[in-house]
């Protein structure tokens, strides 16, 4: 993903450079004085060439965006069996699997889920004195993950919360959507970001290109004030 992001950044830089050069050349043609046949011909060829390059850059931009979206989808599917548990205090020589199982049994009432249902459970990030690190849990099947996800509302009123293991791209989109529409109007389901707009309509998105039109169509309350 980082390599594609770098390619996209280079493509944007080249496009900006091309636009500057074209603007400079256009200004030179305009400054050539009264139109003569040679200047007029050059100007026409310039316009044709500029249109061709614009079309090529647009196609390249679209292809890169589609590749980024496809890879993000693949990465999200790789995370479909995982959830993140937040709010569990850290302990020395802790067993994250046992801690999570304790939450599933005592808080969510899922006593049938055993250690065999958890493939991986570990803390994310570097240790901090300020807060406990979240625990990434990868379950043995999507069904187990789905069962846990459906019962997460039972954690309301506690310090523990559960969220999906989104990709960096989708987490950024989700954060921007919640900032605009409000926390209660945005949630995720199987890696898809769901937005409930002010008119009651619901929108499922996975990319920034899908979010932008919604930001324009439904101004935030702070912007509308």
Write up this protein:
There is one protein chain. This protein has helices at 2-30, 37-78, 96-106, 142-150, 168-181, 208-217, 221-224; strands spanning 82-86, 118-123, 135-139, 161-164, 186-189, 192-196, 202-205. With 225 residues, it is α+β, with helices and mostly antiparallel strands. The relative contact order is 0.10. Helix content is 53%, strand content 15%. It contains 7 helices and 7 strands. β5 and β6 (192-196) form a beta hairpin. The protein folds into 3 domains: 2-78; 82-164, L1 transposable element, RRM domain (Alpha-Beta Plaits), CATH 3.30.70.1820; 168-224, no CATH class. The model has no long low-confidence stretch (mean pLDDT 87). The longest helix is centred in the first third of the chain and has 42 residues, at 37-78.
Instruction: Quote the average pLDDT.
Output: 87
Any idea what the shape is?
elongated
**What fold name stands as the CATH topology of the largest domain?**
Alpha-Beta Plaits
Quick one: CATH class of the largest domain?
Alpha Beta
Order of helices and strands: HHEHEEHEHEEEHH
Give the uncertain stretches in residue-range form.
none
User: What structural class do the secondary elements suggest?
Assistant: alpha+beta
CATH architectural arrangement of the largest domain: 2-Layer Sandwich
Largest β sheet strand count, sense and barrel closure: 4 strands, antiparallel
Number of domains: 3
User: What strand line-up does the widest sheet have?
Assistant: 2-3-1-4
Strand percentage: 5-15%
CATH superfamily of the largest domain: L1 transposable element, RRM domain
Radius of gyration: 26 Å
Helix content: 40-55%
- Spatial separation of the terminal alpha carbons: 38 Å
